[in-house]
Structures are given as C-alpha cells and as structure tokens.
Write a structure and sequence with these properties.
This protein is of the alpha/beta class. It folds into four domains: 129 residues, N Utilization Substance Protein A, Chain:P, domain 4 (2-Layer Sandwich), CATH 3.30.1480.10; 67 residues, Nucleic acid-binding proteins (OB fold (Dihydrolipoamide Acetyltransferase, E2P), Beta Barrel); 73 residues, GMP Synthetase, Chain A, domain 3, CATH 3.30.300; 52 residues. It is built from 17 helices and 15 strands. Strands 5-6-7-9-8 form a five-stranded mixed barrel. Strands 1, 2, 3 and 4 form a four-stranded mixed sheet that branches. It has a three-stranded mixed sheet with strand order 10-11-12, sandwiched between helices. Strand 5 and strand 6 form a beta hairpin.
C-alpha cells in the first residue's frame, strides 16, 4: 500500500505540477479530520508520516491519572495501569502517546478524509496553474481557437483556457476553431474556479514581443525598440535604436530580403509595419516618423510637445496618409502634436515660415543687445545711411545685423535701399 501511494504521489507531482510536500500535508490533515469524525475531537491527535516510504501512524496524547475511576474523559485521559503497558516509566501526570488504528475508522470518517485530500489537490493544481501563467503575463504565447462565447473567443493554452474579448480582437481578422494564433497575455487573475487569463491581439506589446522572438539583436539588447504606435489590423510604426554603431537597427529588424519582418507580418495577417530610426532630436524623429513622405523642414517645440511640418506639395497627401493614418501614427510614436502643411500653404501660414523665426531673433538682437532704447536713435540711423553705409556703420550697430539677415533670407535689403534713394532724390 505504501508503494502504491508513493507512485500515486509521484504521478500527481509530474502531471499536475503539485509538490509532494503539499500532498503529504494534505494526507496528514485528512487523517486528523478522520480522527475528529471518529472520536469526536482531534485536539490531542498527532499524525506522523514517513515521507520516504509513505508509512503513517496516528497517536492520541493522553494524560495519566491514578485509577480507572479517575478517568473522566477516555479521549484525553488514561489510567496508570494502562499507561504502564505503553511505557514502563509512565507516572501520574505524564503525557502518553497512545497509538490509534486507522483501519477502525468508520465509512463516513474515511470519506471525509478522502474529500480533504481531493480538495487539497484541486487547490494546489489551481495555484500551480496560476503561478505558471502569472509568470507569462506581459508575454506572448501560442494558443488554439477553441470556441466562440458570444462575442468573446475561448483560446486553449494547453492546461488552461484564455478569453479573447471583443475589444482585444482585430476587426479585420476572422478566426476559426482549431486555428493556431499568437496572443499577448494582458492579465492573469486568481479565482476559485482557476486562473482567469485575459489575452489580446491588438496590444502594441504583441508586435514588440514578436520582434524579440524573431530578431536576435532585439532579444539580446543590441537593438532597442524605443516606441511603438499601432492601429491593429492596418499599420504599425516602430522606432528602433542600435547600441552598437556597427549594427543597422532597421536592417536588423527587416532581415535578409525582408525575411524577419515578413514572418511577423504573416502572423499579424498582413498588417503593414513601418520601421524607422530613433533619434533624440525631436525634429529628426518626427521627420523619420512621417516616412515614406519627404519633409522640407520641421519646427518642434519640446515644451509644448507640438511641431509644425512643411512638406512638398506633391507629398502632402502621403504625409497625412489615408484618413490621416500616417500623421496620426507619427504623432503617437513621437508624442508630439503634429501640424502638417504643404510649401504653398506654409507661405501664408504664420509660424510655418522660417523667416518668422529669424525675424524674432533679429528683433531680440535689435532691442536687447545694446541695452536701453535711447532717444535720437532713428536720427542717427538716417544720417549714417544717407552717407556711405559700409564706411559709417559701426560694428555694434544693431541695424547692421538686420540688413545682413534680411539680405540673406528675405531679400528685402535691396528693395529698402532703392526706396531710400528715391526719397532722397525727391
């Protein structure tokens, strides 16, 4: 019997992933429960189980009293004469361990002991499952579509079932029973009926974990995925960065002839994936994020997290994308609010012309570089300008800066010179 019990415990430990120590504890508790049902109380009952060969013994600790007439409760007291039969050194007041025969337990006591063991096995199995899948939380696993439960889908993960809710399903996907899919474990909850596992097919981390499993450089940390923006079933943008200057992060993720990224696209049922280079400069990052559109220039405000982007007229629709998808994903990826205009639109839009920002810098130099504004400043300027400008203008004259800047970016200096000469002739 002991060998059969040991074989059964070994099998449970292997198949159910339940530790043998927990099962021994369950056996001890079941025997104590059986004693309580058989004798009415179990406060003084001890159970000893040999965990090497599965032999067990039950004892009742009883207090030694003088005579049989002094025994008030036979369950906890024993006469001195009976105690001498167990231990010759026994004396009044000692505690003697009296052996109990478990074979004498009644049917009800035996059934109760069995139920205690089964309940313990179920609890340990549930705890083992919860621990197993809780370790896999925030990770990707492979499951089989089992059945549809209303708008939710049950996914078989082997030892447990997961729930793919309607909100976590890709609308363009049409899953069928027995189909194998990869899912991202969002959360694992411990319930009385076992672990409740919630999975997703729309989570951005699903794409990241797929790249980690497919791309060695991402898995070992050589290439980092800095940011992900995803519209499940349609398009995903990811920004990657290489910690090794000799490794091209985009090329590593794409693979030879696109082999690596294509396997991920196949798993996502044709979802398009744009891979761009990450840059700490927000202007360059936004320009990369708007690819495949070409960008003329980007003006980014790091404090307000906003950016103004100018693109060629022919690239405006490509930069915005179908229903604004390209610009929307770029905004999610960079964390900036992006306003895009074509070159033609930017000419008449305040804040989209580079001249606006250079004029601001010019004004700062004009009013603050020399200190306080002095009276007669305009007269001095007119007198110097009426003569030969290059000979009389001082090096620190703020209008010297103004003329040079306007001549370079705005082409306004020649027009102003012509107008002044016309006024002098009149």
């Amino acid at each position: 019997m002991s060998k059969e019990l040991m074989d059964a415990l070994d099998l449970l430990e292997k198949e159910k992933n339940i530790s043998k120590d927990s099962l021994f504890d369950a056996i001890e508790n079941s025997l104590i429960t059986a004693c309580k049902n058989n004798f009415g109380k179990a406060d003084n009952i001890r159970v000893e189980v040999d965990r090497n060969n599965c032999d067990f013994k039950c004892y009742a600790d009883k207090e030694v009293v003088e005579t049989e007439d002094d025994v008030m409760d036979p369950q906890i007291e024993i006469s001195l004469d009976d105690a001498k039969k167990i231990s010759k050194k026994a004396k009044v007041g000692d505690i003697v361990a009296v052996s109990l025969n478990s074979k004498e337990f009644g049917r009800i006591a035996t059934q109760n002991a069995k139920n205690v063991i089964l309940q313990k096995i179920r609890e340990e199995e549930r705890n083992a499952l919860y621990s197993q899948f809780n370790e896999k939380a925030k990770d990707v696993v492979t499951g089989i579509v089992q059945r549809f439960m209303g708008k939710n889908i049950s996914i078989d993960l082997g030892k447990a079932e997961a729930i793919l809710s309607e909100n976590e399903q890709v609308r363009s996907e049409h899953l069928r029973p027995t189909e194998r899919i990869k899912v991202y474990i969002c959360d694992v909850k411990d319930t009385t009926k076992g672990p409740r596992i919630l999975v997703s097919r729309t989570h951005p981390e699903l794409v990241k974990k797929l790249f980690e499993s497919e791309v060695t450089e991402v898995r070992d940390g050589t290439v980092e995925i800095k940011a992900i923006a995803r519209e499940a079933g349609s398009r995903t943008k990811i920004a990657v960065y290489s910690n090794n200057p000799d490794v091209d992060p985009v090329g590593a993720c794409v693979g030879l002839n696109g082999s690596r990224v294509n396997s991920i696209v196949d798993e996502l049922r044709g979802e398009k994936i744009d891979i761009i280079n990450w840059d700490d400069n927000p202007g360059i990052l936004i320009e990369n994020a708007l690819s495949p559109a070409k960008v003329v220039f980007v003006i980014a405000d790091g404090d307000e997290k906003s950016a103004k982007v100018v693109v060629p007229d022919s690239q405006l629709s490509l930069a915005i994308g179908k229903e604004g998808q390209n610009a929307r994903l770029a905004a999610k990826l960079t964390g900036f609010k992006i306003d895009i205009k074509s070159e033609t639109q930017a000419k008449d839009a305040p804040g989209f012309r580079l001249e606006d920002y250079y004029e601001d810098e010019d004004e700062d130099e004009e009013y603050y570089e020399e200190g306080e504004y002095e009276e007669g400043y305009e007269e001095g300027y007119e007198e110097e300008y009426d003569g030969e400008y290059e000979e009389t203008a001082s090096e620190n004259d703020p209008d010297d800066t103004e003329e040079s800047v306007d001549g370079e970016y705005g082409q306004e200096a020649p027009e102003a010179d012509t107008q002044e000469k016309a006024d002098d002739e009149n």
